[in-house]
Description:
Layout: E1 2-6, E2 11-15, E3 22-26, E4 29-31, E5 100-103, E6 109-112, E7 126-132, E8 143-148, E9 215-220, E10 232-235, E11 241-243, E12 257-260, H1 265-268, E13 270-277, E14 288-291, E15 298-299, E16 309-310, E17 312-316, E18 323-326, E19 333-334
Antiparallel strand pairs: 1-2, 2-3, 3-4, 5-6, 7-8, 9-13, 10-11, 10-12, 12-13, 13-18, 14-15, 14-17, 16-19, 17-18
Amino acid sequence: MAVNFNNETDQVNITVPAPISVSLTNPKSVSVSVTDKGRKGDTGDQGPAGNNGTNGTNGTNGNNGQDGANGQDGANGQDGANGQDGANGQDGADGTDGTFQLEDGDGTEVTISNGKEVKFVEGSGIDINWTDTSNGTDGDPYDLTFTVDHDAAANFVAEEHYRWDNDISGTATIHANNVPALSNTAITGTLSVSELITPAKGHLYTKTSSTHFEAQGDIVKIGTGSTTQGELCYYKSNGTWEAANANAVGTSGGCLLGIALGNDPDSDGMLLRGMFTLDHDPGAIADELYVSTTPGDIQSSAPTGNNDVVRIIGYCLDSTNGQIFFNPSSDFVVVTA
């Protein structure tokens, strides 16, 4: 390589063998340009590792993060084993003995308490005995039997009382004080009645109450047909009952009249004569009553139409409660208008 300095230009020329060239333009500034690089040298050996550097200081702790969302509930655990039974409590105090009341027919009362006894006292003709003293349960209670001997009873005369559902033969005395009334009793043969029994004198009727359709008197249970309770009816030749009507002799005049006590004549009955309470007021007290031209009705004025039948069938007993005395006359008049 050759180095030349040019005083005129203050340049240093460095000549190097081709293809390398070096150029200096100022003592203070040197530039070298290599137009062609030489062959790359071999890689040098790796130098020894340097010493480890000192650890840096710890950074400051960061702010706490927000709480996370709650997790789902876990599954229920299995039931624990049952605990042991507790000790039995102490017995309660004994209760007080109960009592009850007994009352006789006169209203006298006694109090029966624990340990007290009640005795049934026997009398003439009355024998009282326990006939079953086992168990005393609802299904098998104790039995206390009262046996009455009529012939030995003080209020009877021996062999002077009879069962009316059996045949009566021989001679018997009926004490009027012990037999206030006899009804529905059939007697065959001869019955002798002494002065102890007062013979009946006709029928005793009392005024019926204000209850609709109440009746007392002569009642028959005959005939067929459908009737209305409280309706005035006449008895037809075919055996049926039908509502009476004053517009014709055949339905109100020469015929048997009755008041229906129900819907079935041979079951509920028909009143032929007696006391009755209508469901309406036919007139004022003491008014005469007539068959009406309204079928089945009773009125306090006589019919006036041509060929109407005027027949008195009873009288008003009250002006407001519908009570009448039913007593149909066998006479009647036909109106000519």
